[in-house]
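Risk register update: the risk of archive-format incompatibility is retired. Evidence:
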Amino acid sequence: MPTSFLEIVELPDGSIVLRRAEDEGVLVTLDFSDDAKVFLQGQHVEIAKAMFTVGVQMAGQMAEGELVQEEVAHVLH
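Archived output:
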């Protein structure tokens, strides 16, 4: 992916997206349920920022060959 500035935006429908600053194309979308928003006490946007930050860092490490994929099954919790 070419180098560009990324932005995190909360859309009118409540979705939080990661996109390139120069266009409207969405790269990743996060949707928190109403229950999750209540549990997070309205801090869901901050949680989304942290999730996107870690994801972008990991993608960068993978692109630079620093992150090695394990050959085992992964369980998502």
